[in-house]
Amino acid sequence: MTPLFTSGVEQTPDRAMLENTFNHNVHLSGIVYEVDGLKIRGFVFKPKAPGKYPAVIYNRGGNRDFGSLAFPGSSIGPAQLAEIASWGYVVIASQYRGAGGSEGADHFGGDDVNDVLALPAVLAAIEEVDALRIGLFGWSRGSMMSFLALKKGLKVSAVAVGGIVADVALTLAHRPQFSKTFAEMDPQYQLDPQAWPAERSVIKWLDMLPKVPILVLNGSSDWRTRSTQALKLVEALDEKRYPVRFIMYEGADHAISQYREEVFMQLRNWLDRYVRDQQPPPIINYAPRAC
């Protein structure tokens, strides 16, 4: 997983992306790094002021080019990532293989998870990054990618996820058209339509997650992934004593666009507490006590 950096020649940020970074006094660069013999593209946002900063790995949603980092309808796009960087973080985001000009094929939580697992090595090569302070942020499909990366050994101080994909079988039940999408993306899906979703569903292997603080955000009018998945996940996390904070935004859509300012206030507080300041997570204990 040798990181290969470019100056953005192969992936030039467009004018709108650059304007977003100017507004936040943030530097934006395109990167190309190597994973499994493939050249994977992505972006790095970092504060212009010199210093040593904690980092945030952002996992995008969507599939293939739909929902890519430059896709106009993405729940979290360049403007939001630039805002996070303006708080004093180096933000890195992969396009994943098979999307945004990256080589390879997107298998929706298959070997493309390696593209996330390679990012700490890329961050370690960036002079401004304090590689001991890394947070993880994922939205929609990116929440699934985040959980899979944690399962496979990614080390972070805290996690924040929104638009939750915790049970792919529920996604298929709610949106059966995804069966065709998954079959197109990965031939393995049709070989075992039950095992394939389970392998990508954190609700099926929750015990394999490290017990780091997890912030879960969802909208009650999210028609893309449904709030049921977030509720099931939070109940299971609580049962296993994970340090979790859950916020359901009444009437909000998949991007929680109706409460965007509040969402980013919560996200910033979470990252500052557990990533920047490295505060220890609370001890979860609700055993009965004598009065």
Quickly describe the structure.
Helices cover 32% and strands 21% of the residues. By secondary structure, the protein is α/β, with parallel strands linked by helices.
Task: List the strand order in the largest sheet.
Answer: 1-2-4-3-5-6-7-8
Strand content: 15-25%
- Give the C-level CATH assignment: Alpha Beta
Number of domains: 1
Largest sheet: 8 strands, mixed
Computed structural class: alpha/beta
Mean pLDDT: 90
Element order, helices and strands? Answer: HEEEHEHHEHEHHHHEHEH
Distance between the termini: 57 Å
Based on CA atoms alone, the radius of gyration comes out at 18 Å
**Secondary structure tally, helices:** 11
Q: How many strand elements?
A: 8
**Helix amount:** 25-40%
Q: Supply the CATH architecture.
A: 3-Layer(aba) Sandwich
CATH superfamily: Alpha/Beta hydrolase fold, catalytic domain
Which spans have pLDDT < 50 for at least 5 consecutive residues? 1-12
- CATH fold-level name: Rossmann fold
What does this protein look like?
The protein is of the alpha/beta class and 291 residues long. The protein has a single domain (42-276), classed as Alpha/Beta hydrolase fold, catalytic domain (Rossmann fold, 3-Layer(aba) Sandwich). It is built from 11 helices and 8 strands. The protein has helices spanning 15-23, 78-86, 114-117, 119-124, 141-151, 168-174, 178-185, 188-191, 195-199, 227-239, 260-276, and strands at 26-35, 38-47, 53-59, 90-94, 129-139, 158-162, 214-219, 244-249. Strands 1-2-4-3-5-6-7-8 form an 8-stranded mixed beta sheet, with helices on both faces. It is globular. One of its GO terms (biological process) is proteolysis. This is Peptidase S9 prolyl oligopeptidase catalytic domain-containing protein.
